[in-house]
Structures are given as C-alpha cells and as structure tokens.
Write a structure and sequence with these properties.
Chain B: It comes from Novosphingobium mangrovi (ex Hu et al. 2023). Chain B: Keywords: 2Fe-2S, Iron, Iron-sulfur, Metal-binding, Oxidoreductase. Chain B: InterPro entries: 2Fe-2S-bd, 2Fe-2S-bd_dom_sf, 2Fe-2S_ferredoxin-like_sf, 2Fe-2S_ferredoxin-type, 2Fe2S_fd_BS, Beta-grasp_dom_sf, Diverse_Oxidoreductases. The complex is a heterodimer of chains A (731) and B (155). Chain A contains 18 helices and 32 strands. Chain A is of the alpha+beta class and 731 residues long. Chain A has a 7-stranded mixed beta sheet with strand order 12-13-10-20-17-18-19, with helices on both faces. Chain A is globular, with a radius of gyration of 27 Å. The N and C termini of chain A lie far apart (66 Å). Chain B has 5 helices and 5 strands; from the N terminus they run ββαβββαααα. The model of chain B has no long low-confidence stretch (mean pLDDT 97). The chains are: A alpha+beta (731), B alpha+beta (155).
Chain lengths: 731, 155
C-alpha cells in the first residue's frame, strides 16, 4: 500500500492487507491540531507534548473496565520513553479513519495493539530525536532518550522533549517498520503495576460515564417497547401522556422489526428522566404479539428434548469414524446437559445522547463497538456514515452487551423526531431485561468411549441451541476446534436448532462460557467412569510432545498443546492437587481447563457443600496469555472478575425464563449476580510463554463453571448437568 | 414544594416534587452526577449516599423524607475523615474496574467504618453484601476497607 507522510490529516492506521498482514500508514494530524488551536505540538494522532514537558496521550479504545484506557497509553509511553507520572490520558473520539479499530470485544485489543501502539510511541520519539539532531547539528544516531528528555552523550547535553515538540511535528513520519523498539528487558512502564487512569476521578464521583453526559437544553427520554420482544405497536393513549406534567413530547418509534437496529416503541421526553419514567406508568400500549407470544422456557425444553431424541439436523465436525469408535469402546458414557439463557446486567443501564441537526447527528455513547453503531445509525436515519459523529464515554460495564448498537439507534431515532434538541435515552433496569441480547440457551447430548485403560477414544456432541435456517443465533455457535474434539482421531459435533423470539448476543467469552461447563463436567464424568483423574486424562490427551493444532476457522487461534500443559501443571502445583479426594466429607476440589480467545486457563475450585448450600472457599487460576502482562495490577482483577462471574452464573441462581414471549426477570432480585459475601480467595498465576501478548477479558471464565460443578461432584457425588445449580439438586 | 436539607455541608433549599427520589434530585436538579442509577429498587447499592451519616439508597428515598437532614454524596466523600482514608485506599489498591458501582461502594464502606472501625472479613461481607459490583472487584473492596480502617486508626 502507499505510505503517505505529512498527509493533510495524518494518522496511524492499521489495516489488514488482502494477504492477511498488517500495514501501517503513518503521518501527522496537522489539520486536527491547527483546527483545535492548542498550545501543544501534536506528534502523531496519539501524542501531544505540553510546554511543561507533560505528555498527553490519546486512549483510543472503549474502556469497559478491562483496562484499555490505561494499557494502550502505557504501550505508547513506554516507547516514547517518558515517565508515566508525566502522562495524562485523554479519551479520543470514535473515528476509525484516524485511530483504527476501537472496539472492545473478543479479548482482541491486546493482541491487535501490542505492536502498533508501541510503534506510535516509537515514531513520536524518533521524530523528537530527529528534531533535536537538526537543532543541535549532531547525527541523530548520537542521541538517546530517557524520561522525556533528549540526551547527547558526547557533549553531555540534554533537554526536555518539549523543546523539540514543534520541530518534531514538522518531521517526516518514519516508516514504523524502521523503528527499533525496546527490548522487553528495558521496559520501565510495561509490566509494572499501574493504577487505572480514571481511578481518582471515579472515587471523586466525576462525570465520566454515558449516563453523565449533559448538553445544553437536553431532554431525557424513556422508551417503552413490547414486553414480548418483537411485538408490533398498534395504539396507545398518547394524548393522555402528552398532557401529563413535565412531559414535552411523546413520539411513536416505528421500527424495522430488527432488535439489532430498531423495534417499535413509544418514547416519552421530559426535562427530567424521572418524570418521563413516572409518566410511563400511565402509558397503555396495545401491542400485536401474535408472532412472538408462543415462546416459553417450557417450550424450549420440550423442543430441545425432541430434537435430541430425533437426531441432528446437521454435522458441524466429523473426524474419523465416531460410530465405530464408540461401538468398539470398552465403556460408553452418555449424558444430557442444559444451559440457561442469561442476561448481561451491565450496572450502567444502556444510554446514548443524540443531537440531530437535519443532515447530521452527533452522538455521545458508552459503546464497545462504535463503528457498528455508526453504520446502524446511518442506515436508520438514511445519513452518510460521515454525518454520524460519535464521542466515546467511559462505560459502566460491557460484558458484550454494548457490542450491539441498538440503543444508539433508538436514541438517534428519538432525537430525529426533535431536531436541534439533544436527547438522552436511558434504560430503566426493567428495560435492560426486556431489551438485552441474551446468552443463548443450549442443550447437549454427549457420548464418549473409553478404552480398557480409561483413555478417551471417541467423542460426540449433539447440541441444540437457538437459530433459524441452519444458522445458530448470535453467540450460540459451537467452535469445531474445542477440546477434546480437536485432540481425538474420532470426534463428531452435531447441531440442531430451535426457534426463539429472543435476540441473542455475546456475553463475556461467548460460546465458551456455556461450553466450558458442559464439556468439562462431561469430561469429568468420563474420567470418573474410567477411574481416572480429569487433569491426568487431559494431560494424556495433550501428549508429552508440544504440537500446534490449527484453529477451525479464520477467527480461531491455533491450539498449542504445550501451553495447555504448562497452565494445567502450574495450577495443579498451586492448588496442591492430590486428586479430588482426600478432603473431609462435604468438601471437594474440581478441575477445569479451557482455551478461548487465544488464552489458556486452568483452574481448580474448592467447594464445600452443606444442607444444599455450596460455598467456595478457594480458587486457583493459572493462565498463559503470552510473553508479557502489560499491567499486572489490572490483569489480576480481570482474572478474579472472570472467576467470580463464572461462579455466579452457576451459584447465584441466574436464569432467564420466558412466558408468552416475554422475559419474566426484571431486576437483580430475580437474576442475581454474585455478592461479596460469596467471594472466595482467588490465587492467580501467569505462566509466560514465547508468544505475543493476547487479551485477558474473557479466557479465564470458561473453565470456572466446569471446575465448580466437578468440585460439587467431588464433595457430594451429585453430578450437576443443568444450570443454575439449585438447592434441591443437592439435598 | 420547598424542601430544605444540608447537602455536603451546605444549606440547600429546593423547589421539587417531594416524591422525586433523592437520586434524581441530586442528578437532575442539583447537578451532582456521581451518585448512580443501577436498579432503581434498592437492590444494588450504586446510588448509596449518607443521610445523617447512615448509608441510604437514594433511588428509593423520596426527597421529601430528607427535609431537615444532612446528605453527603460521593462528591464530598473525601471531606469526611474516614471517607478520606476510604478514597485513598480505593486509589492505592486500584479497586475500580468499570468503576460504575464504586461511588456506592465507597459511601457504604465509609458509613460502615464509622460504625465498625475495626471490621473482620465477616463484618465486611455482611455490611457490603447489598452493593453489587458487576465486574466483581470484591477482593480489593475487602482489602481496601481493611487498609482504610488501619489508616484511620493510625491517624
């Protein structure tokens, strides 16, 4: 591709070439800087040096609590070679043409940005040194840097970066590939324990989040949609609501029938969100629910059982000869599992502020996926994408919910009814449960064969989930590359689909958060049937010799058996694993290992069961996410958060149920998340490996639920094949 | 209707519907957005403020009920001698992940430490179980409360 230097609007942008490589275009944001009239010279789109030598670094990615707003600027600051305490981080706007990918999803940020962010810092440093070389009349090779200063060793001269900022901004941008980046042994910021850049502001209650956006003349909106998702608007007592005190506008939103963009609704606008929400209590809407009212939890269970009895609609993976291998096995193990529908429950309710001005729209949104939202808003309002301007806010929890742009479209559609007036749409907690994109339910029938020595020889999984026309719904797919199918000569994965009116979506570690429970519990059954220990069974399957098993698709990372072995062996040492037994009655340990989002995690959960109550006193987790943990302070929190979320999915009673197409849960009392009083001690260890760093938001979660139910089995002899775990299952 | 109360140390008079929850009065009428909406039903603690020193769920507290009382919000948490240590510990241990619940956590922890200056783990669990952290920063919340208790005792 053509590399431009000093282009009119400069940027570093990473783009994927047709051949799969990543190329970088690099130049200077001159247009942006002069337009803003700042007293600081911008050096690349990400770096500005202030006259007092403080450094402003742009944090370009969505911050959902995964630490990207701190971690990416750390990478830039490292190669820029400045002291971290001289850095201020600013959230950039959302604009892929300047900043490249800005989404927070799939634990992909670390892997994607590890090199480009360091290059962005290194490029700015190179330009500062080049400017200094010109000013001092010395060769650039004779200069070095430290702590935000340029140093000329030969003369003993040194000066702060700020002295050269203006000169640096006039430099031709270097070819990123020509930059010499630091050897990791020289890192001074990366790998240290760095506090989140917003932590002080958070503890002072500063307005950082989408819900805190305030614009002059802004109206607040609530949006009522059909309790049964997908119901169409027929009529409502709109005039009565319009006449209520404090109500400014009541508008009917005509949807396109797609939950991903816009469903029918009635929006109530007021100067006060509370007044609008109060008026909603009097709103009476007639919905046409004929197309959606047949869906229910009981109906799904019945349809799924019938599908499992009937046999698969489709084969997703077929290796070797599973039928013969199962027939020839010395023992067969068969079981059915069920996984419930779950909600995300981000603590900050969905919201977006929008100002429509006739031919353009300006949006302030806590979004994990701004470009997707931009495209949806542009399509819904029939605008060019360039006419949609998006400001990022900090995000009060994502977990995958905010990868969807529906709430941005809803706010935009409401704002389009009142041009010139900024409108903030905010969901109530009830709206959250009514308009989520849920983790899909799943039903599995598994079949395994073991030989006389208890070794796993054949594996079959017929899974049923939501979907239509042969395609599983969003987040409900099965990866063909899952353990143990990828390690066996004879394995088959089969699929059948049932219909739902619920939109499904990505919940932290999509697919894997459901499969981890099913596969690890079933493998424990297999191990028990053969008189084996689950970790021993898995280590034997992995083999002594490290090998790489290619991922099953372009987005699936290759599976490296050596890395799996390392984390399994590590966690067994941490947990002092001596088999599941050896503990007093009512206590047990369970093991789990899972590979997802390019990360390898093994966990051991200890459970104590008494009178049907499960307590988890301790959890050990060992993970390999590559050669470098960028910010260990945050990384430990990501793992602990994933562990607790996994435990909560099984133990807190989480399950979305439906009657007549409508979700029955409406708040945290009926769809609970784990609280502090159930939280175990969690020991976290990272096992570094000679691989590029990858993300940590998700991969620690999938092994947790399986390890937990295995611990419950060790403690009680009761096998949990259906979540959530209920007291009656254990007494 | 005019309602009078003390807000973060200042006498305040507001003409507001007495049924309006304190949460929305703070956010909409006073312009203090640090107190957050989580559940709207007293189930998650994100909206916790102090009313006469007692941790109170502002999302279900009609503003009319606080006539004549003293309200402290996260914006003034650091002005309280115990709250100052709680805020400092929250930063020192980098408790927040997404950070959305933390105003409520800090306010609840501060009121609790006034009541129980030297808490055990069990005391902390019992006192903090009403405050949901969806990111599950609980391990550090426990540690930060102990750290703050220790520093407050030394002070």
């Amino acid at each position: 591709m053509a590399r431009t230097s000093l282009s009119r609007r400069g940027f570093i942008a990473a783009s994927l070439l047709a051949g799969g490589g990543v190329a970088f275009e690099f130049a200077l944001p001159l247009g942006r800087a002069s337009a803003q009239g700042r007293d600081a010279a911008p050096i690349t789109a990400f770096v500005r040096i202030l006259p007092d030598n403080r450094v402003v670094i742009g944090g370009k990615n969505a911050e959902i609590g995964q630490g990207a707003k701190t971690m990416l600027p750390m990478l830039i600051a490292e190669e820029l070679d400045v002291a971290w305490d001289s850095v201020t981080v600013e959230q950039t706007d959302a604009d892929a043409t300047i900043y490249g990918a800005q989404s927070a999803g799939g634990s992909r940020t670390t892997g994607r940005e590890w090199l480009p962010m360091r290059q962005a810092g290194g490029a700015a440093r190179a330009m500062l040194l080049a400017a200094a070389a010109q000013e001092w009349g010395v060769p650039v090779a004779s200069l070095s840097s430290a702590q935000g200063r340029v140093i000329h060793d030969a003369s003993g001269r040194s000066a702060p970066y700020a002295d050269f900022a203006a000169g640096a901004a006039r430099q031709t941008a270097p070819d990123p590939a020509s930059l010499t980046l630091k050897d990791p042994s020289a890192f001074q910021i990366v790998g240290t324990r760095v506090m989140g850049v917003d932590t002080p502001a958070i503890t002072q209650g500063k307005p950082l989040f989408g819900i805190d956006v305030d614009r002059p003349g802004m109206l607040h909106a609530v949006l009522e949609t059909c309790p049964a998702v997908g119901g169409r608007f027929v009529s409502a007592n709109l005039d009565e609501i319009r006449a209520m005190p404090g109500i400014e506008h009541v508008v009917v939103i005509e949807g396109d029938g797609q939950a991903e963009s816009l469903l029918d609704g009635v929006a109530i606008l007021s100067k006060s969100w509370w007044s609008a929400d109060q008026a909603r209590l009097a709103l009476q809407v007639e919905w046409d629910t004929r197309a959606v009212e047949g869906y229910s939890t009981q109906g799904y269970a019945k349809c799924a059982a019938e599908a499992l009895d009937r046999g698969p609609e489709k084969t997703v993976l077929d290796k070797g000869d599973v039928a013969s291998a199962l027939d020839g096995a010395s023992q067969r193990i068969t079981a059915r599992y069920a996984v419930p529908i779950l909600a995300h429950g981000t603590l900050e309710p969905q919201n977006t502020t929008a100002l429509f001005t006739g031919d353009a729209i300006e949006i302030w949104s806590p979004t994990q996926n701004p470009e997707s939202g931009r495209a949806l808003v542009a399509a819904a309002l029939r605008l060019e994408k360039e006419a949609v301007r998006i400001h990022f806010t900090r995000i009060g929890g994502g977990f995958g919910r905010r990868l969807m742009g529906d709430y941005m479209v809803q706010a935009a559609a409401i704002a389009a009814k009142v041009p010139g007036i900024p409108v903030k749409l905010l969901y109530s907690r009830q709206d959250e449960f009514r308009r989520d994109f849920f983790r899909a339910g799943a039903w599995h029938e598994l079949d395994a064969g073991i030989d006389a020595a208890g070794r796993l020889t054949a594996f079959r999984d017929h899974y049923v989930t939501f979907g239509a026309d042969g395609a599983p719904s969003r987040g409900a797919e099965v990866a063909a590359g899952i353990v143990p199918a990828n390690l066996l000569a004879d394995a088959r994965i089969e699929q059948s689909l049932i219909a739902t009116n619920l939109p499904t979506g990505w919940l932290r570690a999509p697919r894997s958060n459901s499969l981890g429970f099913v596969l690890l519990s079933f493998l424990d059954e297999v191990a028990q049937a053969g008189g084996r220990d689950l970790p021993a069974l898995l280590l034997e399957l992995l083999g002594e010799e490290a090998r790489t098993i290619p991922g099953s698709g372009p987005r699936e990372a290759d599976f490296q058996t050596g890395r799996a072995r390392s984390v399994i062996e590590k966690v067994l040492v941490l947990a002092d694993w001596a088999g599941r037994g050896g503990l007093e009655s009512g206590r047990g340990k369970g093991f789990g290992f899972y590979f997802s989002h390019a990360g390898y995690f093994a966990v051991v959960v200890e459970a104590q069961v008494r009178d049907g109550q499960v307590r988890v006193p301790r959890v050990w987790a060992a993970g390999d996410v590559g050669s470098q943990i960028v910010n260990p302070l945050n990384a430990e929190q990501q793992v602990r958060g994933a562990v607790i979320e996994g435990l909560g999915q099984a133990l807190a009673g989480q399950e979305i149920t439906q009657v007549d197409g409508a979700v029955e849960q409406a708040n945290f009392d009926t769809h609970p998340f784990m609280r502090i009083d159930a939280v175990p001690e969690i020991e976290v260890a990272f096992v570094p490996s000679d691989n590029g760093p990858t993300g940590l938001g998700e991969p620690a979660l999938p092994p947790v639920v399986g390890a937990l139910v295995n611990a419950v089995h060790a403690a009680t002899g009761t096998r949990i094949r259906k979540l959530p775990l209920r007291e009656e299952d254990l007494v | 209707m005019a309602i009078r109360f003390t807000l973060n140390g200042d006498e305040t008079t507001l003409d507001v519907d007495p049924a309006k929850p304190l949460l929305w009065t703070l956010r909409e009428d006073i312009g203090l957005p640090g107190t957050k909406l989580g559940c709207g039903a007293g189930l998650c603690g994100a909206c916790t403020v102090h009313v006469d020193g007692v941790a109170t769920r502002s999302c279900i507290t009609p503003v009319g009920l606080i006539e004549g009382q003293s309200v402290t919000t996260i914006e003034a948490a650091g002005a309280d001698p115990v709250g100052r240590h709680v805020v400092a510990a929250w930063c020192a241990l980098d408790v927040p992940q997404c950070g959305y619940c933390q105003a409520g956590q800090i306010m609840n922890a501060t009121a609790f430490l006034h009541e129980v200056p030297e808490p055990t783990d069990a005391d902390i669990d019992a006192a903090m179980a009403g405050n949901l952290c969806r990111c599950a920063s609980y391990t550090r919340i426990r540690a930060a409360i102990k750290d703050a208790a220790h520093k407050a005792k030394e002070a």
